[in-house]
Amino acid sequence: MTDDRTVTLAAIIGAHGVTGEVRLKLFSDDLSVYPSLTGGGRTFTLKSIRPGPNGAVARFAEIRDRNDAEALRGTQLSVPRSALPPLGEGEYYHIDLIGLPCLADGEPIGTAVLVEDFGAGDVLEIEKPDGKRFMVPVAKAVTVEADRLLIDPEFVE
User: pTM of this prediction?
Assistant: First the structure.
């Protein structure tokens, strides 16, 4: 079974120089393992990437000059979920948690809608059936199972 959901790994934040290189804001540790990324209805072939100001500087085969690069400012670059490397025991990708039902003491309390990392660890945002949302720290309050998230009742609002 393949997973066709897309995962955004970077965003083009501007041009770098006059030869078509772009500045990237990275959402992944290593973009070089993905030979092609999609964004804005196009596919981009990564030729090179190096550290740069506020992220990285990359060269894509399809971007020929500064004008092409500037026109792509704001483009998010993605890969299919199925292209991500396999995970180790106890690891998860944020996208895998989104949409999972959340339970506390065996009772449904809502659905996972967002995972944020504010620096001290992941925080899960849960939407209750009434549309109200609350957040819980993943490390302290969440047990991740394949098809659901178990939430410590002490953290439920």
Answer: 0.77
